[in-house]
Amino acid sequence: MDAPLSAAIVAITASAWLYLTGHALFFWVKFLRYRPPSPETLDSPVSVVVAAKNEAEALEAHLPLWLGQDYPEFEVVVINDRSTDRTAEVLDRYADYPRLRIVRIDPQEWKSFIGNKKYALTMGIKAARHPYLLFTDADCRPASDRWIRLMTAPFTEGKEIVLGYGKYARRPGWLNLLVRYETLLTALNYMGFALRGKPYMGVGRNLAYTRELFFRNDGFKNHFELLSGDDDLFVNENATAENTAVCIRPQAHTVSDPPTTWGSWIRQKRRHYSTARHYRTAHKMLLFLEAATRTLFWTGSFVMLALPPWRPWAAGMIFAKLITGAAVFGKAGKKLDDPLPLWAVPLLEIQLWALQLWIFFTGPFKKRITWN
Q: What's the pLDDT score for residue 7?
């Protein structure tokens, strides 16, 4: 390789390394240094909203946990979205519980609408009686009986949106480590951005906002036809530096059973990544720059490793990047009570980068998946 080209590769790789380091210092360190204030109890009525389709087993396990929350006044609104399993039977068993409200989606009524989760959630929000809404999925369980209390505490500060953490349960195997690593990375980004006054997404497994905000901004109207986005696109459209808070307390987390096959996890990621193109322009640029510089860094580093004069420089940048990443994820995992083995973090970073690149380039050739 001639000298000008190799020099250009080195310059691009070093610039990418500097950008990624700056990104970590600006957004991630803000999260790592964040100390949540002592929670004040909202003590205003809250509606927990859950859309369920063919989730009989999950509802049997999680309904008692939602209904048993330590909070003075709340309801649990479960939307039975055309389920064909025992979901209706399970809900009927709890029908006498005063805190439970059941919303049933009529299949005939639904035929007039696009088949996605947003219609079910909209029906649940309309049925909700209370001004504060807390969302989770049917397959998620609260980490404690203080989940409602802690997730809604920031509303006392005049906030309209609260971003929570939805983690995956620990299981044996490499896939579980990768799923949890990607979940932690996502949280570092969206919580770090929010703490810097640039909220851009939240996760529907653990998200709260006011009923008034939903109707004031026409709910999911602007992206109703999209399969995903009931969580991240709604937050992206409506969150501001002033109206958004984060809740990182471990007792306020939700816990989900992780994907058990590579195929199911990759399909889930395709669905999630497909909504990013609909984010605000500034957010798309920030996320694109982070992803692009990561690609430039790893590609350039591997090329430099093949060039003897630059091999020590490449090894030094890679070592610094991986050691810094391990330190960050070690502290973030401890902060969110979701620790990863530090020895695995460097391998997980490289593998996730490669998989995300593959998903990005193969995404346009995949068929659209429906909410079912």
A: 86
Class of the CATH domain delimited by 46-275: alpha beta
Residue 99, phi then psi, degrees to nearest 5: -85, -10
Over the stretch 248-271, which tens digit does the pLDDT of each residue have? 999 999 999 999 999 999 988 888
Q: What is the mean pLDDT of residues 141-151?
A: 97
Q: What amino acid occupies position 279?
A: Y
- Written as six digits, the tokens of 71 are 């909070």
* Residue 255 DSSP SS3: strand
Q: Mean pLDDT over all residues of the chain? A: 91
Q: Which residues contact 108 (CB under 8 A, 6 or more apart)?
A: none
Say what the pTM is: 0.92
Domain ranges of the chain: 3-32+282-362, 46-275
Largest CA distance in the chain: 78
Across-strand partners of 133?
47, 209
Q: What is the CA 174 to chain-centroid distance, rounded?
A: 20
For residue 274, which of 352, 136, 198, 368 has the smallest C-alpha distance? 368
Return d(Cα 222, Cα 290) in angstroms, integer: 27
pLDDT tens, position by position, 348-367: 999 999 998 888 887 654 55
Nearest to residue 128, comparing CAs of 157, 96, 103, 92?
A: 103
Pseudo-torsion of CA 275, 276, 277, 278, nearest 10°? 70
51, 235, 206: which is closest to 144 by C-alpha? 206
